[in-house]
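Help!! Second protein's tokens look totally different from the first
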Amino acid sequence: MSKLEMDIIQDFITECKLSGHMSKNTTKSYQCDLNKLQEYLDEQNITEVSRVTEKVLKDHLTRLSEKGYSPATIARNIVSIKALFKHLVKEKYVNLDASENLVAPKVELPKVNVLTRKQIEDLMNMPDTRTAKGQRDSAMLELMYATGIKVSELVAVKVSDIDMQLGNIECRNEKKDRVIPFDKRTKEVIQRYLQDGRRHLIKSTDEELLFINYQGEPMSRQGVWKLVKNYAGRADIRVPITPEALRHSFAAHLVERGADIEAVQLMMGHVSPVSTVRYARENRDYLRDVYDRTH
């Protein structure tokens, strides 16, 4: 491509950065993937964006496969290319979307354990909220399902991380901080725990952590695991269940209700949208529609 044509890609990346609707990791992925496309177009002496046809794009993807790139990486490249062409059509650089018929290769991901909504409801009803422990356990279960946070993140949540007015939680981990909203029901459960149950568990009013155990010490990941397993047994949920099942169920139910993949990706803290794709893999047409609308 000529310098002018190269600027089209850079303009797209800049727009992504300034939009405020896209994570830094997604923008970096777009940049990396489109750099590969640029290199291929240079090799083919294609200097005008109007000459980038569906065949050119498919040949580029075939080249990536021949170079040993995994199906997951190629799927991510397709997402990036589709995002670029959506931009090109919108800005009238091209009339037709050459990426429209690109189909991602099948990406094999570990099967995730997703609970039904009835199983979730039964689980949430198990804690005895007349007790301090029950109020704490109810708040933990609700927060895990309502936000999809990991156990390691849950046990590290501080009271100051919860914004009751806005209804969201600031989640911190080693990769990236993120803010996740939660619903009215979860807000009410947390509010009850903060106003009543928690004060019976803490040893000091200076305690920063939201969730603590009987001894007034931080909850452990193993403690949360046992808690979830115990309530699952009492709810007669006979499928294997761990705290991760609540995280997966959160994402799966959001996708089922029509949430955009990127929105779920941001809430889950996934680096790649491919990780989020697993929750919609049973319905390929639906997944394609979500991708088209999102990217």
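Here's the second one for comparison:
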Amino acid sequence: MTEPTFLRALHENDLPPGEKKAVDLAGRSILICHVGGRFFAVSNICSHAEERLECGRMGNGWIACPIHGARFDLASGKPRNPPAKRPIVTYAVRLVEGWIEVEMP
């Protein structure tokens, strides 16, 4: 079995609590969120409106699409309310020597 591949995304000091930042990793737009003392990485694209989630509101454990307000759980990617019905992709995150790293499949 092969080891997972983690890519360095950004330094933890560059993402204060309550903030989010989009990064491009391996040709994918990933949104990294710092909420409740944890870092989350999700697809930056809404599964319903194909809109960038980086422009949406973020709450305690969720990110909202700026177009229709669909909210997605940051841990699971599952939609919390309509109009979204499909989840967004989530990625494993780890901290290594102050760097936020995201697992790429």
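Reply: Different proteins will give different token patterns, so don't panic. The radius of gyration is 13 Å.
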